[in-house]
């Protein structure tokens, strides 16, 4: 009888222990949900949460690191001679200068002539403010000097246009490596943004060639994950010059995660510069614009963003200026890349966008060739307008 009691007690104890364990496990699973307005805290860079940990609002995306093929890479054209070589193409937009010179060289300038000058400047997208300033200065200098000599008039116009374009602006690309709080070097990171159809991905590929021509090690980040063709296109540009491309393994992946991994790959490889391409977006779409801010914030966990380059189509005129204003509010644009500048009389957008944003035009696209992207030089630009 005693043995039976002990057996019963043992069974009871086992059941109670199992129930307690189940109850405890159930409690662990039923943690209270976060409140709707409660945001998870960002991981802190400690030994348990290193800097390469993705923030909680970024999807963990598998990426593919596409190393360049074993085929010998192309050597891009030297950067130094590009503006000279492409002067002829740029001069096609010299309709502004030629029109102004022809008017200013007339025997006597009437009020109708001055109105024609003003109209020429406005049609060239110089903008109302800069046009008014240039008109006032031209009137004063022409009247004071009282000269109609073509060479003298050209020199006056060159000086005034150059002042508008502002040669004092810093147009250099920030491609110098930095040192993080951990004492380790990190690559310069350049984020490239813009609306659809401006030639943004092509510009990133051409910019990679500019940097490779300067003997810099480059990694490309294909953060335009909404178009598989964009990643393919960027990878092709990279392979041509022996540059690694980091891309997602699927369409529609989180672009911030791809950008994060691209910078991480650049750090691991000891690259000098990481170029991050982003999806083209309309400036009036708040959610897409907000995503740019997220990409920049996530990149900054690996390394500070050195440059935010906004790609603008030179032929869009004042609409391009409105685009620039919105992008500047979201991601703090540091430089402008003007594409399709060849063959257009809209070169005045250079003046307008710089004046509005206080941001320099740093690069210009002057054709469809692989090396038809050149650093913007104010003096060369004005000379081409007047050539």
Provide an overview of this structure.
There is one protein chain. The chain folds into two domains: 79-165, Four Helix Bundle (Hemerythrin (Met), subunit A); 178-377, Rossmann fold. The chain has 387 residues and is an alpha/beta fold. Mean pLDDT is 79; it is low at 8-51. Helix 4 (95-104) packs antiparallel against helix 5. It has helices spanning 2-29, 82-85, 87-90, 95-104, 111-123, 128-145, 150-165, 200-213, 228-240, 255-269, 286-299, 318-331, 349-357, 378-386; strands at 63-66, 178-179, 185-186, 188-194, 218-223, 244-248, 273-278, 305-313, 335-339, 361-365, 373-375. The strands form two sheets. Strands 1-6-5-7-4-8-9-10-11 form a nine-stranded mixed beta sheet, sandwiched between helices. Strands 2-3 form a two-stranded antiparallel sheet. It comes from Georgenia satyanarayanai. Keywords: Cell membrane, Cytoplasm, GTP-binding, Hydrolase, Membrane, Nucleotide-binding, Receptor. InterPro entries: AAA+_ATPase, P-loop_NTPase, Signal_recog_particl_SRP54_hlx, SR_rcpt_FtsY, SRP/SRP_N, SRP54_GTPase_dom, SRP54_N_sf.
Highlighted features:
387 residues; alpha/beta; Four Helix Bundle (Hemerythrin (Met), subunit A); Rossmann fold; 2 domains; 9-stranded mixed sheet; two-stranded antiparallel sheet; 14 helices; 14% strand; nucleotide-binding; GTP-binding; GTPase activity; Signal_recog_particl_SRP54_hlx; Signal recognition particle receptor FtsY
């Amino acid at each position: 009888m005693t043995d039976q009691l002990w057996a019963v007690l043992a069974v009871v104890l086992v059941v109670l222990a199992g129930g307690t364990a189940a109850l405890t496990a159930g409690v662990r699973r039923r943690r209270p949900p976060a409140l709707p307005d409660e945001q998870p805290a960002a991981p802190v860079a400690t030994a348990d949460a290193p800097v390469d940990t993705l923030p909680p609002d970024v999807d963990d995306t598998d990426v593919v690191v596409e190393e360049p093929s074993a085929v010998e890479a192309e050597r891009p054209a030297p950067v130094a001679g590009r503006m000279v070589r492409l002067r002829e193409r740029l001069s096609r937009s010299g309709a502004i200068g030629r029109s102004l010179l022809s008017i200013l060289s007339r025997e006597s300038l009437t009020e109708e002539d001055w109105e024609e000058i003003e109209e020429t400047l406005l049609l060239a997208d110089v903008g109302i403010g800069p046009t008014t300033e240039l008109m006032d200065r031209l009137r004063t200098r022409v009247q004071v000097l009282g000269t109609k000599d073509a060479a003298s008039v050209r020199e006056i116009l060159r000086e005034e246009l150059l002042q508008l374009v502002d040669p004092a602006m810093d147009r250099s690309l920030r491609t110098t490596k930095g040192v993080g709080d951990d004492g380790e070097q990190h690559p310069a990171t350049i984020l490239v943004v813009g609306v659809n159809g401006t030639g943004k991905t092509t510009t990133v590929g051409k910019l990679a060639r500019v940097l490779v021509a300067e003997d810099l090690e480059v990694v490309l980040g294909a953060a335009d994950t909404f178009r598989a063709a964009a990643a393919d296109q960027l990878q092709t540009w990279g392979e041509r010059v022996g540059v690694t491309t980091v891309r997602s393994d699927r369409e529609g992946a989180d672009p911030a995660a791809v950008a994060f991994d691209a910078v991480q790959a650049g750090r691991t490889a000891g690259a000098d510069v990481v170029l991050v391409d982003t999806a083209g977006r309309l400036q009036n779409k708040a959610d897409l614009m907000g995503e740019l801010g997220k990409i920049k914030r996530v990149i900054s966990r690996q390394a500070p963003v050195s440059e935010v380059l906004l790609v603008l189509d030179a032929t869009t005129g004042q609409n391009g200026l409105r685009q620039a204003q919105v992008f500047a509010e979201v991601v703090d644009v540091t430089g402008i890349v003007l594409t399709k500048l060849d063959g257009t009389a809209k070169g005045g957008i250079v003046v307008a966008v710089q004046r509005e944003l206080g941001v320099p035009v740093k690069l210009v696209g002057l054709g469809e060739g692989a090396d038809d992207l050149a650093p913007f030089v104010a003096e060369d630009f004005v000379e081409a307008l007047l050539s």
